[in-house]
Every structure is written in structure tokens, then in C-alpha cells.
Specification:
Elements: H1 7-17, H2 22-29, H3 33-41, H4 61-69, H5 103-113, H6 119-126, H7 130-137, H8 152-155, H9 160-176, H10 183-188, H11 192-196, H12 219-225, H13 234-237, H14 243-251
Protein name: Cytoplasmic protein
Biased composition (Acidic residues): 218-233, 243-253
InterPro entries: TrcR (IPR010421)
């Protein structure tokens, strides 16, 4: 479907140069009827120069005449063969200047928590290039030491639905290739909502981790190697360190 160029300016021109109803203009330009009325009253789009849809090959004069004669007639954007395919996004997603500094953090998050995503998928999600993604994957990025992984959804670089769709696509591709996924990989390949609803996997608490290999087999050897003191007489048994106290008593007058 061909989109209208400069809808508000087109509405200004139609209000000023035709007798088409506000409802018809609103439906044509994709605005609310009250906004069109505001344009007519001068409260909306003040200072906006009208954009002639006829001269710019977006509307025919016959269509305007039919709309003026019939209030129920709906205006249609003129078909333009040269504009076909322009809606498809080409290249990486545009990222505002204020958020471009957050892209490395989001790339690192995606590489770390969703390694199944390809460079092309990551590039479309956050609007970056493959060399940048490769540098972060290989940790050769000039600022890699200061980059902290942050969810791109939290940064506003992509929508949660877009991220889930990319993850599901990666899961389908991996399943089609017949690769066996581990439990951790399978958990990463589902959407956020599904992951939150899963049961937690039993894990050994950190405090006792490693005790499963603990053995008491070496305790007897340690006891055998200990040397016992020679307590054959009472004097040797009570001959404890602390001769300093006796020396101090001898030195007292």
C-alpha cells in the first residue's frame, strides 16, 4: 500500500482548496476528524504550508471532484509504480543519536545471552554493522573493558516482540539443522514470557558445591603419620612452655 507524503501538509491544502468534508480528509490523510477541524479553525498546523497532492502525483483531480460531489466517496492515494518496495527497510535500523552510545552494551548482551542469533539478526535488532558485532564477539572492540551488557529492550533499541521473534527464528533454524541443544540453550531460545513460566532446574547450592567429590579415605593416613610425644614420666608431661614466668619470679627481690 502506497503511503501518503506529508499528510498534515496535504490536509492543510485540501482544507484550503477544496470543499471536501472533514471526515473524508481525515480518512485520506490518517488523522482524526477533530484535527482537520482544528486545521480549518487555525488551531492546528499553524504555519504549515499546504502540500498539493495533485501536483505531486498522489491524488487525481477527478477523485477530488467525486469527493466534493459525494460526501460518502473515499479518496485513494494514486498508485505509483516507482514507489513500490520503498516500505521495506534496507540496511541496519536507524538509531537516534542519543541512543547510539548504548549499542555496544546491547550487542554484548545479545552475544552473551543469545549466542544463537546471527550477526545479521543482531544488526537488525539494534541497528549496527557486522564489523562492530564481530569486534565485540572477539573482544577486540576499543572500549570492550568498559562495556557492560544491557538488555536492548530496556535501552529502547528494539521491542520485546522483535527480540522474541528473532530468538524463535533462530530456534527453528537450529532445530531444522538437527543440532542437539542443551537445557541452557533451549531456555535461551524461548520468549521471555515462556522462560518466566518454566520450572527452575534443580541446582546444587553454592555453599555445598564440590562436596559431592569429598572423601574420608585420606584421614586414616593423616592420623598414622602423626607423631606422638614421649610422656614416659610426669616431669616431661608437665614440662610445658612458659619458663619466662619462673625467670621473672627468680628475678624479683
Amino acid at each position: 500500500m502506497t503511503k501518503l507524503l506529508h499528510p498534515k501538509a496535504t490536509a492543510v491544502w485540501l482544507v484550503d482548496n477544496t470543499t471536501i468534508s472533514f471526515k473524508q480528509i481525515a480518512d485520506f490523510v490518517g488523522m482524526h476528524e477533530l484535527e482537520i477541524q482544528g486545521i480549518a479553525d487555525g488551531d492546528v498546523a499553524a504555519g504549515v504550508k499546504g502540500f498539493d497532492p495533485v501536483a505531486n502525483n498522489q491524488l487525481t483531480q477527478d477523485d477530488i471532484d467525486a469527493a466534493e460531489a459525494n460526501p460518502l466517496h473515499k479518496l485513494k492515494v494514486k498508485f505509483n509504480a516507482a514507489a513500490q518496495g520503498e516500505e521495506k527497510r534496507r540496511g541496519p535500523r536507524y538509531t537516534p543519536l542519543s541512543k547510539r552510545q548504548d549499542r555496544p552494551a546491547s550487542i554484548l548482551w545479545l552475544v552473551k545471552f543469545h549466542p544463537e542469533l546471527s550477526d545479521g539478526q543482531i544488526g537488525k535488532l539494534v541497528g549496527t554493522t557486522k564489523p562492530t558485532i564481530q569486534a565485540i564477539r572477539e573482544r577486540t572492540h576499543w572500549n570492550i573493558a568498559n562495556i557492560q551488557p544491557i538488555d536492548p529492550v530496556a535501552l529502547g533499541l528494539c521491542k520485546q516482540s522483535e527480540l522474541d521473534a528473532a530468538v524463535q527464528k533462530a530456534a527453528a533454524k537450529k532445530a531444522a539443522e538437527g543440532e542437539v541443544m542443551s537445557d541452557d540453550e533451549r531456555r535461551k531460545l524461548v520468549s521471555t514470557e515462556q522462560s518466566l513460566g518454566m520450572d527452575a532446574e534443580p541446582k546444587i547450592p553454592t555453599a555445598i558445591e564440590g562436596l559431592e567429590t569429598f572423601s574420608l579415605s585420606g584421614d586414616d593416613d593423616d592420623e598414622d603419620t602423626r607423631t606422638e610425644g614421649d610422656y614416659s614420666d610426669a616431669d616431661s608431661f608437665f614440662n610445658l612452655p612458659g619458663g619466662d614466668d619462673e625467670d621473672e619470679e627468680d628475678k624479683q627481690p
